[in-house]
């Protein structure tokens, strides 16, 4: 068995380790834009090859797959999906785990994703408006005096999203100014390099509640959910500071264990099932609209809201990062067998199981991340006495030296019977990471701690009490939205 893995971050290191555990003893090769030291180690141990190049260059990837005689290619990141790399690979006669360009629209275009939700009346949909230019959005921003979420209309690596609460009348002019400035930044900065999408800016209603991700394997017919994971995006303890690509993540659903004898959960099993059902409805809808079969990973980045319960914030066409570290660590079933089930569209015959464990992931980052990545780049890294449990992320190995790539350097994975135990193990692993030129690193100590968990459980409980009441009264999803030029309008 020969496999070519595309991508070189922490997510792909987690995938590589899961593939390596297969009883089929696969020879794993990798195609990435830098040499990730962890993936490179797996490649060497399994007798594969490492190829450098653009992960969006389908021709180079196909040539690498043909050179190693790959039985299939596994696409890790989202951008190759957006560029149609899985389509070109399959056209060349090589099987591929990865969402084709048409179905990857679920993630690539947040506007198209919302259009699809409302077209098919899929639960968990938010009210939204989409705009092609800043000037087109400006009159709306000036009139709309509600709390909103401003987003780039395309997936842009998690950058640019801003929630603006607008409750105080005496601050409305100030808040309106902030909305205008951030909307202009989204269009002119975050979207300036993307000419593959018509709409540039999305304005959505503001909702509250705990966020979580339900990632699923799918062959286009069957959808198999993985345990829910909660990403911790803010840079500093207490959910403070700038939003990042993810400072760490915790098991928060089916396999949440807060304490050995404590079954309180951020997200219940019923809510996980509802979330997976929504993901399946989204897959069915995009397949119906495009006529293309979905082979790979689909995920719902969800929020448990008082309006809907499980609510879609965004969709992914791949595993999340750092969420992959949670689910790939807990995966009990042979990942190669799962991939074969997806390729042959018989995923329903594969019994997918996960270990009954709590998993906590903590990312260690160089100072400068996330807003000054040029300062965070190029620092030599030493990993001392870590053993198992460290995923290399934004790190490049050249000439026997590993240097920071400007983003998260490593992701430390802790496991245990309860999340605080898993968190403590991940914390211990963070001590093994050092930048040898003296440049400082930082990480979140509170991820998976009892105090952090209590805050999340309480937030989930508040949202649950309200949406369950609304559900009993037949009001789930119904609310009044003030629309400029129309006044109050009932939506749902």
Explain this structure.
By secondary structure, this protein is an alpha+beta fold. The chain folds into three domains: 2-101, Rossmann fold, CATH 3.40.50.20; 127-206, Dna Ligase, domain 1 (2-Layer Sandwich); 211-450, D-amino Acid Aminotransferase, Chain A, domain 1 (2-Layer Sandwich), CATH 3.30.470. The strands form seven sheets. Strands 12, 15, 18, 20, 23 and 25 form a six-stranded antiparallel sheet that branches. A five-stranded parallel sheet has the order 3-2-1-4-5, sandwiched between helices. The chain has a four-stranded antiparallel sheet with strand order 6-9-7-8, with helices on both faces. Helix 1 (10-20) links the parallel strand 1 (2-6) and strand 2. Helix 1 packs parallel to helix 11 (323-330) and helix 8 packs antiparallel against helix 9 (172-190). The model is unreliable at 167-171 (pLDDT under 50).
């Amino acid at each position: 068995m020969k496999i070519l893995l595309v991508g070189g971050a922490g997510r792909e290191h987690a995938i590589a380790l899961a593939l390596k555990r297969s009883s089929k003893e696969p020879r794993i090769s990798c195609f990435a834009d830098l040499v990730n030291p962890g993936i490179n180690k797996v490649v060497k141990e399994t007798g594969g090859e490492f190829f450098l190049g653009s992960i969006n260059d389908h021709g180079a990837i196909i040539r690498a797959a043909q050179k190693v005689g790959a039985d299939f290619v596994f696409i890790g990141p989202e951008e190759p999906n957006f560029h149609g790399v899985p389509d070109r690979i399959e056209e060349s006669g090589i099987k591929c785990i990865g969402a084709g360009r048409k179905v990857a629209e679920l993630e690539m275009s947040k506007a198209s994703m919302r259009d699809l939700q409302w077209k098919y009346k899929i639960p968990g949909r938010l009210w939204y408006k989409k705009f092609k230019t800043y000037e087109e959005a400006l009159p709306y921003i000036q009139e709309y005096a509600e709390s909103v979420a401003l987003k780039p209309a395309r997936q842009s690596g998690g950058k640019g999203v801003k929630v603006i609460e607008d409750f105080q009348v005496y601050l409305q002019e100030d808040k309106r100014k902030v909305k205008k400035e951030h909307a202009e930044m989204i269009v002119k900065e975050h979207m300036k390099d993307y000419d593959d999408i018509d709409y540039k800016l999305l304005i959505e209603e503001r909702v509250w509640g705990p966020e979580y991700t339900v990632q699923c394997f799918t062959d286009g017919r069957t959808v198999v959910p993985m345990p829910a994971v909660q990403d911790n995006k803010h840079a500093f303890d207490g959910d403070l500071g700038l939003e990042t690509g993810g400072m760490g993540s915790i098991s928060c659903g089916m396999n949440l264990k807060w304490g050995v004898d404590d079954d309180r959960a951020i997200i219940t099993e019923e809510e996980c099932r509802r979330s997976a059902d929504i993901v399946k409805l989204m897959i069915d809808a995009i397949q119906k609209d495009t006529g293309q079969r979905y082979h790979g990973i689909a995920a719902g980045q969800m929020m448990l809201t008082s309006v809907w319960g499980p609510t879609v914030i965004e969709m992914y066409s791949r595993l999340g990062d750092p969420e992959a570290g949670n689910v790939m660590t807990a995966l009990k079933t042979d990942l190669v067998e799962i991939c074969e089930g997806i390729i042959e569209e018989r995923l329903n015959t594969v019994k997918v199981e996960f270990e009954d464990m709590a998993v906590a992931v903590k990312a260690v980052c160089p100072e400068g991340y996330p807003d000054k990545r040029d300062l965070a780049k190029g620092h030599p890294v030493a990993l001392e006495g870590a053993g198992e449990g460290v995923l290399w992320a934004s790190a490049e190995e050249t000439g026997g030296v590993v240097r920071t790539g400007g983003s998260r350097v490593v992701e430390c994975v802790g496991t245990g019977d309860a999340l605080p135990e898993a968190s403590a193990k991940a914390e211990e692993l963070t001590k093994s990471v050092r930048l040898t030129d003296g440049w400082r690193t930082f990480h979140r100590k509170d991820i998976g701690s009892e105090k952090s968990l209590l805050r999340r459980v309480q937030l989930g409980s508040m949202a649950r009490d309200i949406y369950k009441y609304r559900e009993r009264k037949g009001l789930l999803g119904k609310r009044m939205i003030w629309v400029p030029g129309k006044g109050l309008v009932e939506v749902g």
